[in-house]
Write a structure and sequence with these properties.
Layout: E1 14-17, H1 27-41, E2 46-51, H2 63-73, E3 83-84, H3 89-101, E4 105-108, E5 144-147, E6 154-158, E7 162-166, H4 168-171, E8 176-178, H5 186-197, E9 201-205, H6 212-221, E10 228-232, E11 234-236, H7 257-267, H8 281-291, E12 302-304
Parallel strand pairs: 1-2, 2-3, 9-10, 11-12
Antiparallel strand pairs: 4-5, 5-8, 6-7
Helix pairs in contact: 1-7, 3-5, 5-6
Length: 309
C-alpha cells in the first residue's frame, strides 16, 4: 500500500535535496529537487540543501557553485545554510568511533581485484564474502573498515515504491564505512547528516533505493531516527540509461526554467494544465505547491525523459 502525504503526521516535515558536485544539474536532478521540495513545502515544511562532496575525487571544481546558481535561477529557495559534507569529517569520525567501540567494525585487507569473483548485490556492487570478518589474514594489514552487518530482514514502507524488504547481511554483506583512501563512505555520511539536520523525510531518486536498508541498519546501530522514504522514478535517456555525467546527460542551463519544471511535474504524474510553461516561473511554483500529490507519482523505478534532456 502506498503512503500519501495526506496520511503523514501533522508535524511539518523536514526534507532535503543532496546533489553530488560531479557536474551540472540535468533533468533527472531537477526531478529529484522538485519532488523533494514540493513534498516538504506543500505541507509547510522545511527544505534543506546539502552538497554531497564526501567523495572528493569525484567532485568537479566549480560544479557545486553551478548547482547553487541553477537552483536559484529555477526558483528554488532552501532553509538555512548549505551543508558541505567535505567539512563534516569530524562528525563522521565520531560516529565511526562509536561503532568501533561497540565492536561493530572490523578491518579488511581485501582489494577490488581479490573480490572480482564475488557475487553481485542488487545494486551491482560486489557482495562481500566475509574474508576478514574473523580477523585479518596473516601478514596482511587493514586497507578499509567494514560494518559487521547483523543478519535478518528489514522492511520499510516506501511512499512511492511500496513495501521494500532486504537482508543486507545476505545480499550485500559487510559494507565499507572507511575506504582505503581514508575517506568515509557515503552510507555513513548520509545517515549522520540526515539525523543531525533533523530530516524527517527523504524524497530522492529510485537509483538510491537499494542503499536505503543499509542506511536503516546504520541508523539502528547508532540509535538514530529513521525518516520516511519515497523514491521517485529515475529519468532515462533514449537508450534506457539513467541520466548522469557518465551517460552525457545535458545540463538544464539554457532551457527555460518554467518549461523544465512543467516537464518535471508531468514526469512526476502531476498533470499541469496546458500553457503553464508559457507563464511566469512564479505561476509554475504556485500551481505546483497547491496541487502536489505524492500519490500521483508513478510507482516505477525509471521513465523516459523529455527529448531535450
Amino acid at each position: 500500500m502506498r503512503n500519501d502525504a495526506a496520511d503523514a503526521p501533522t508535524v511539518p516535515p523536514v526534507g532535503r535535496f543532496a546533489p553530488s558536485p560531479s557536474g551540472p544539474l540535468h533533468f533527472g536532478s531537477m526531478v529529484a529537487a522538485l519532488g523533494s521540495c514540493l513534498s516538504a513545502r506543500s505541507r509547510q515544511g522545511r527544505w534543506l540543501l546539502r552538497i554531497e562532496d564526501v567523495d572528493t575525487p569525484r567532485s568537479v571544481p566549480g560544479a557545486a557553485d553551478g548547482i547553487l546558481r541553477t537552483l536559484e535561477a529555477f526558483g528554488f529557495v532552501w532553509d538555512g545554510e548549505v551543508v558541505w559534507q567535505s567539512r563534516r569529517t569530524a562528525a563522521y569520525r565520531e560516529a565511526f568511533g562509536r561503532l568501533k567501540a561497540d565492536g561493530q567494525l572490523f578491518g579488511c585487507a581485501c582489494t577490488r581485484k581479490e573480490m572480482a569473483d564475488s557475487g553481485l548485490a542488487r545494486d551491482g556492487t560486489r557482495r562481500y564474502p566475509g574474508t576478514c570478518r574473523a580477523g585479518l589474514p596473516a601478514g596482511r594489514e587493514a586497507r578499509a573498515w567494514r560494518l559487521r552487518v547483523p543478519p535478518g530482514r528489514i522492511a520499510f514502507p516506501d511512499g512511492i515504491q511500496g513495501r521494500i524488504e532486504e537482508d543486507v547481511s545476505a545480499d550485500v554483506g559487510d559494507f565499507v564505512l572507511l575506504r582505503a583512501d581514508g575517506l568515509f563512505a557515503y552510507q555513513l555520511a548520509v545517515v549522520v547528516d540526515d539525523a543531525e539536520a533533523g530530516v524527517t523525510e527523504v524524497v530522492r531518486g529510485a537509483d538510491l533505493l537499494d542503499s536505503t536498508v543499509r542506511q536503516i541498519v546504520l541508523q539502528r546501530l547508532l540509535a538514530l531516527p529513521t525518516p520516511s522514504y519515497a523514491h521517485l522514478p529515475v529519468a532515462t535517456n533514449g537508450a534506457g540509461e539513467k541520466l548522469s555525467k557518465q551517460t552525457l546527460a545535458r545540463s538544464v542551463e539554457g532551457v527555460p526554467p518554467a518549461r523544465v519544471l512543467v516537464d518535471a511535474l508531468r514526469f512526476l504524474g502531476q498533470a499541469p494544465p496546458p500553457g503553464l510553461a508559457d507563464g511566469d516561473l512564479s505561476d509554475v511554483w504556485q500551481w505546483a505547491l497547491r496541487n502536489w500529490s505524492l500519490a500521483r507519482v508513478p510507482s516505477c523505478r525509471a521513465a523516459p525523459c523529455p527529448a531535450y534532456a
